[in-house]
Amino acid sequence: MVLLPVYHSEPERVGPSPLATICYGGASGGLDVRNGRVYMTLPGPLPATCEQWCPASLSGETRHEQAARGRQAGLEQGIGWSAEGDLLFAAFWVEDQPELCEAVQTSYERLIGLARGKGFGHIYRMWNYLGAINQDNARGEERYRDFCSGRSQAFEAMSIGLGELPAATGIGLSSGGVAVFLIAHRHVGGVNLENPSQLPAYHYPPRYGRRSPSFARATVMEGPDRTALYLSGTASIRGHESVGTTVEEQLSVTIETINSLLDAARKRFSRLENGRFESMKLYVRHPEDAAVVREGISRAFQCPLEQSPLFIADICRAELLLEVEGVFLG
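Structure (tokenized):
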């Protein structure tokens, strides 16, 4: 079993009970746990969309068998969590700070510590959203770079090596604060992948900040019958350089980069040869570019429209105009 996203316009519109509901496009950020589920509201990106994190089988195991192992949930030291069987969802929300590094490191260490303490040591996907991502902090450092320093120091303090870093996304919010959430497994460790066309993010040169971004380009979870590839937020980057100045150029390189990773993954995981994207999230900086990105991604990957929401949001580099993530099943 793994956790997969289902998208709706209303937070309670879902079949099987999800472990978490993320509501994008709220007026403010917040975190709560009730009725065995984590509820998180983010101030952006827009439009308002609800993301439900639901258990899905990669084998013949049914949801009933998974649910029979019991649902637990709680809110501890600012970390909201929900667990069922072998699956964990956990999250934190940090109010805005003049500088992010220390608060991010502390919260990240608590998040990872909670996952380990509950017995879910295998983190296979993370998401990071922060307000004013491209603006400077109180010391004149870009807030995303400030965030990356705290995240990197937390991974180091928790003895998580570079090869253990899971897939991740980093995107801006419409107002301040930091939201982070993860999904983890009790027994199965993911296989973290890099992209042949890109330098691993954790090896970026110092020009990108005091600490390099800490994530893999994708993480693969294998089951007895199916394989799931979690694609990190992917943009128009070759090596470590941003490529293209127009949305058309960046869209073309982004699609090329995603295909480069998929081609490499298929050589290691044969089930992915006949797979497809079951869900994608598209992030576009400028509203006027949304139609071009939507059409291009739909043509390239044929992901179901209802499972590929498009958000207007700032990207982790000021010059980047779009970013794409997704879950590819084979």
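The domain at 2-329 is CATH 3.30.1330.40 (60s Ribosomal Protein L30; Chain: A;). The two ends are 14 Å apart (CA to CA).
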